[in-house]
Amino acid sequence: MEIGQQIKKYRDQLHLSQEQLADKIYVTRQTISNWEKRHKYAGHKYFD
Questions:
Q1: DSSP secondary structure, 1-48, as one string
Q2: Counted domains in the chain
Q3: Which domain holds residue 14?
Q4: pLDDT higher for 7 or 41?
């Protein structure tokens, strides 16, 4: 499973919107959208 699919899967399981997840990890909603759509991949700096 690709990282974007995993992000969406876990976000859905936690009943979080893209905006809510973005706020929790200090990125923009657009960043979450891009990750989920595979436009840009999450840099490891967000997950260290």
A1: --HHHHHHHHHHHTT--HHHHHHHHT--HHHHHHHHHTSSPPPGGGT-
A2: 1
A3: 3-46
A4: 7
